[in-house]
Design a protein that fits this description.
The complex is a heterodimer. By secondary structure, chain A is mainly alpha-helical. Chain A has helices at residues 3-31, 35-61, 64-94, 107-129. The longest helix of chain A is centred in the middle third of the chain and has 31 residues, at 64-94. The N and C termini of chain A lie far apart (64 Å). By secondary structure, chain B is mainly alpha-helical. The mean pLDDT of chain B is 86. Classes of the chains: A mainly alpha, B mainly alpha. The interface between A and B is large, with 53 and 52 residues.
Chain lengths: 139, 115
């Protein structure tokens, strides 16, 4: 088997895997019920799916400059998709679309409540002492 | 190779259709954003598949641009996401639109009578 033929077969496998990941993400986005579960499904093609498909493309075209551009695409995808997911998740939490009772670990709610309690206690202490009007800010 | 390309094309079309379905159904702005992200990565996959099929490299810059600006929509919408009332994420039926219109006309007439 020649090298070209082998590279073509590997590229076909990579393309198939990437396309199936895209399809699985489409299914997951429709089947899951909450925003966070849908985000979990949507992340699959964004990094691994695109990486696999571009690997398949790189093995198929096998020319220097285009392959470096594909590496750049994967790098950009890895940089930008966490930013987008972070923003969507944060906005979802702030607009009340994340239900705390469905989560196994919910550190953000716990920390926010602790901070609020600390602030209230600080205000009470400040009133008793009379010298610190705002109280220590709980951060 | 052509069999693989056909299977991949079918899978990608299905993924795009499902993502579009989620974008239409909502129910919130953020769910639509997630659907849009899936659609963007599916488009990246489709362009890559076409380039792999015909062994061309002139469409690769499209992939670079898509991966650079694909996340802007999600960030923008997430930045302006607000509380949405229950039931705001669907298209109104014809009867509901007529009801709202009648309400508005009545309010206008009341305002004219008062003045």
């Amino acid at each position: 088997m020649s090298v070209d033929r082998f590279a073509d077969i590997v590229s076909a496998v990579c393309l198939l895997a990437g396309a199936s990941l895209s399809f699985i993400a489409g299914l997951g986005v429709n089947r899951f019920r909450s925003l966070l579960a849908r985000m979990h499904a949507a992340t699959k093609p964004q990094v691994l799916g695109v990486t696999l498909m571009l690997m398949g493309l790189a093995l198929r075209i096998r020319s220097g400059s285009a392959v470096w551009m594909l590496v750049l695409v994967v790098l950009f995808q890895m940089l930008t998709s966490p930013v987008a997911a972070h923003m969507v998740g944060r906005a979802g939490y702030r607009t009340g679309k994340v239900r705390s009772d469905e989560l196994v670990v919910d550190e953000l709610t716990r920390d926010l409540e602790a901070a609020r309690q600390g602030e209230e206690q600080g205000e009470e202490q400040g009133e008793e002492q009379g010298s610190r009007p705002g109280g220590p800010s709980a951060t | 190779m052509s069999v693989v390309v056909v299977i991949c094309a079918v899978l990608l079309t299905g993924a795009a259709a499902l993502a579009g379905f989620r974008m239409e159904r909502g129910p919130s702005m953020l769910d639509r954003t997630v659907g849009l992200d899936v659609l963007t990565s599916t488009i990246v996959g489709a362009v890559a598949l076409e380039a792999a099929w015909s062994r061309r490299t002139d469409t690769v810059p499209i992939l670079v641009v898509l991966s650079m600006v694909g996340f802007v929509s999600a960030v923008t919408i997430a930045r302006f996401a607000a509380h949405e009332p229950e039931g705001a994420g669907r298209v109104l039926t014809r009867d509901e639109v007529a009801q709202l219109e009648a309400q508005r006309l009545r309010a206008e007439r009341d305002a004219e009578d008062a003045s």
